[in-house]
Amino acid sequence: MRHFPLWKTIVSGVIVFFSVLYCLPTLMGGAPSWWPSWLPAKTVYRGLDLQGGLYLLLHVQTDKAVEQAAENLVDEIRLSLRKGKVRYQSIKRQGMDAVELNLPADAAKAEVLTLLKGDFRNAKVEETPDGAIRVRFDAKEVADLRRFAVDQSIQTIRSRIDQFGVAEPSLQKQGEERILLQLPGLDDPSRAKNLIGRTARLEFKMVDEKGDLAAALAGAIPPDDQILYEERAPGRGRQPGKRGKTAAAAAEDAGQKVVRTPLLVKKRASLTGELLTDARVNFDQYGEPLVSIVFNHQGARKFAQVTGEHVGERLAIVLDDKIYSAPVLREKIEGGRAQITGNFSMEEAHDLAIVLRAGALPAPVTILEERTVGPTLGSDAIHEGILSSVAGGLLVILFMGLYYKGMGWLANIAVVFNIFVLMAVLAGLQAALTVPGIAGVVLLIGIAVDANVLIIERIREELRLGKSPFAAIDQGYDKAFLTILDSHVTALATSLILFQFGTGPVRGFAVTLAIGLVASLFTSITLTRLMLYYLLRNRRVQKLSI
Questions:
Q1: Element (H, E) at 351
Q2: How far is Cα 178 from Cα 60, in angstroms, rounded to an integer?
Q3: Are strands 123-127 and 133-137 parallel, antiparallel or unpaired?
Q4: What predicted TM-score, i.e. pTM, was given to this entire model?
Q5: Which residues contact residue 80 at a Cβ distance below 8 angstroms, ignoring those fewer than 6 apart?
Q6: Residue 351 and residue 287: Cα distance in Å, rounded?
Q7: Mind listing the pLDDT tens digit for each residue in 218-264?
Q8: Across the chain, which distance is largest between two alpha carbons, in Å?
Q9: Which of 1-5, 395-399, 528-532 has the lowest mean pLDDT?
Q10: N or C: the chain end with fewer CB closer than 10 Å?
Q11: Which of 236-245, 436-445, 484-493 has the weakest average pLDDT?
Q12: Is 244 left (phi over 0), alpha (psi -120 to 50) or beta?
C-alpha cells in the first residue's frame, strides 16, 4: 500500500475536526450556555416548509413604471425647451409611453423637432396629424424600463427585508413581472406585507396657497395642481398606533373620527426621496416618534434652494400621495436635514425609516398569491424527514456491515462523516435546509454508499486476480476513481442547473445535493483510504475482511 502524504492527513483531519465542531450546536439543539463564545454556534437553518413563515407571489405593475418615466420625460422636455428658448402652449403625457407638445402657430416646428431629436435619441420624435409634436419611447426603451422595474423592485425589497430582520429570505424573479418571496420564521405577516408592498415614493411639494381649494374640490382643479389629503388622529400625538397600524388607523378602530384635511398642492415635486442618504427614528418635544432624514450633497443644496425661495409658504411632505405634514417655511433650511411627523406609532416610524433608507419601489407591487405555513406543519415535516433519513440510513448501514464485513463498516463511517460535512457546511453558510433538502440527504446516503461499494468491488476483483491486500487496495482505488469522479461531476452539474433555473423547493434540494456530492468525493476517495492506511500500515495483512 503506497505511502499516504502527510499533507493529505493534515487536511483530512482538519476537515473532519471542523465538521464535527460545526455540527455539535445543531445536534445539541443549539449552543448550550457553557459553549465558549469563540467556538462556532450556528445551527442548520430551517427553510419555510420546516419552521413556518410567509410565502408571497408578487406582481410588479411595470406599466406604472413606464408611465412614471413618461412623467419624468415631461420635465426633461420642458427643461430642454427652456434651454433652447422655445415657447410652447402645453406639454403633457399622452397614453402610457408618450408625451405630446403643443406649440404656438408661429413656432418653427422643424427647429423644435431637430432640437428634441438631438436631446432624446432613445425616443421617437414625430409630428402628429393635428399639428402637435409627440415624443414616444421606442420598444427597446419600454422593454428596458419594464425589466429595470422588476430588477430594482427585487433589490429594494431585499434591502427592506434585510433591515426588517428576517434571516435567510428567499427572493427571486419568476417570469417577466413576478417575484417569489419566502420569509421563514416570520411571526408578523401583516407588518411584513405592508413593508414589502409600500411604494415609499417621498416627495416635497409646494402647497398652492393662491389656488381656490373650494373650486378645486368642486372639480375645477388647475392643470398644474392636485388635491391630496393629510390625515390626523384626534389629539395631536395622543393616539398610539396598534401593532402594524398607523395612529390614524388605530383611531378608526377605536371608533374615533380621523380628520382628513384636503390641500391643493403642485403636481411637480420640488424635491424627491431619491436624494436621501439616511433616515432614522427620533422623538419630538412631546416624546412622539418622528423620522429624521438626511439628504446627500446635491439634495441638501436643492433643499436649501427650495426653502429659501419659498419662505412663508407651506411645503407638503408627501409619501405615496399622502401628506404627512405641511409646515410653514419660516426660513431657509441649510444642512440637508428635515423631519417627517405624522402621529406615528414607534413601529410605523421604524418601518418608514426602513423603506426610506432602502429606496422607493420603481412601480407598485401587488400580492397575487399568499400562503402561510404554520410551525406545527414544519415540526411534522422535520419529524417525518428525520425518521425516514434515520430508517433508510440504518438499513443501509446494516446491509453494508453484514455483506462487506470490515470494509463495509469502514464505508459506513465514511457515510456518517459525509452527513457531518454536509450539515457543517449548511450551518457555516446558514443555507436553508428544506423538506426537499431532507430528500437530498436521503439520496446522498445512497450516492455515498454507491461510491464505496464501487471501490470495495474493485478491490474484490483485484484480490480474485491473486494480488496482495495492499496492492488490491491501491488498484481498487485507482481504477474506481475516474468512474466515481465522472458520476459525481455529472450529478453536480445537474444540481447546479436545478439551482439556477429551479424555484424555492427545487433549489433547496439542489443546494443540499451539490454540497453533499463534494463531501461524498472527499469521504469515499480520501477519508476511507486514509483510515485504511493507518489501520494497516504496520501490519502484515494476509486477508482483508471484505
A1: helix 346-358
A2: 6
A3: antiparallel
A4: 0.61
A5: 115, 116, 119, 120
A6: 18
A7: 988 888 889 999 876 555 443 444 434 444 554 454 455 667 889 99
A8: 110
A9: 1-5
A10: N
A11: 236-245
A12: left
Q: Is the dihedral of CA 156, 162, 165, 166 positive or negative?
A: positive
Q: What's the half-sphere exposure (Cβ side, CA atoms, 13 Å) at 164?
A: 30
Quote the DSSP letter at residue 207. Answer: B
Place of cell 412622539: 288
Length of the chain: 546
Give the other-Cβ count within 10 Å of 282's Cβ. 11
How far, in Å, CA of 342 to CA of 505, rounded? 42
From residue 133, give the alpha-carbon distance in Å to each of 103, 125, 138, 261, 403. 8, 7, 15, 39, 86
Closest CA to 100 of 108, 84, 89: 89
Tell me what the pLDDT averaged over the chain comes to: 83
Among 273, 303, 292, 289, which Cα is nearest to 201's? Answer: 273
Q: What domains are there in the chain, each with its CATH number?
A: 6-52+374-536 (1.20.1640.10), 63-141 (3.30.1240), 198-371 (3.30.1360.200)
The DSSP letter of residue 523 is I
